[in-house]
Automatic annotation (TrEMBL):
Key words of the record: Coiled coil, DNA recombination
Coiled coil residues, start to end: 222-249
Superkingdom, natural source: Bacteria
GO biological process, one term: DNA recombination
Name of the molecule in the record: DNA recombination protein RmuC homolog
Source species of the chain: Roseicella frigidaeris
Amino acid sequence: MEALSDRLDQAVAAQNERLGRTLAESAERTQESARRIHERLAVIDAARANIEALGGQVTTLAGILGNKQARGAFGEVQLRDMLADRLPAEGWAWQHGLSNGTRCDALIRLPFPPGPIAIDSKFPLEAWQALRRAPDEAARAAAERRMAGDIRKHVDDVARKYVCPGETAEGALIFLPSEALHADLHALFGPLVAEAARRGVYLVSPGTLWAVLGAMRALMRDVRLRSEAQHLRREVARLAEETGRLDRRVASLKRHFAEMQTDVQGIEITAQKITAAGARIEAVELAEAPVARAAE
């Protein structure tokens, strides 16, 4: 009985040790899975915050200079103010150097397609000013010929320098600092403007550039939203993977508990049988004791 009891105690102790070790390992795996889930949830919250920040981003209108007939740096100042007002800081670069060795006044960083778009703001104003100040028809005709030559040469320079296949978009922009200049070019030199457009060089005024920059800003925001959405989708997939792993580990833990319960029930049955056997043995000894005394 003592040996049987010792073996029973050893079996119960071994079962308890194995059960404790299994429960500890399962608890560690469960804690690790929970920690990873919390990390993924933190990343998802950060991505959601970025999306909300992008959705609620609002730009303010800055003081745009009026349509003055100026020259030199006037176009650059006006262009830079408009870019700063309409586009995020990372969406454009000022005085950007291209791989062909040229430097454009501004580069709008759009994704392919269409790709980054270079902007030139140094349109020659001398011929246009001479045209507006022409005292007679002869001077006006001479100013128109000069202006047509200036337009064609400037378009050639922009198309050659600022359109780089694989690096920039297939077109470039020429910023005209005056709505009046833009209107005169389309009214007096329509064929030249159309020819420039066929070569991928587009002449924009402050008003048209304002609308173009609004469309570009929407495109940039859409690209960033798609990027954040893809990142969020990847994180959700990882979270689903961790959740599946947690489900499998919980199922394994349930299986271990079921096995433990079966073993405990088996131990209880064995103990009951041993107790019953001991009771039967004790009953036999009590029955044989009077017979032995009578024989003496």
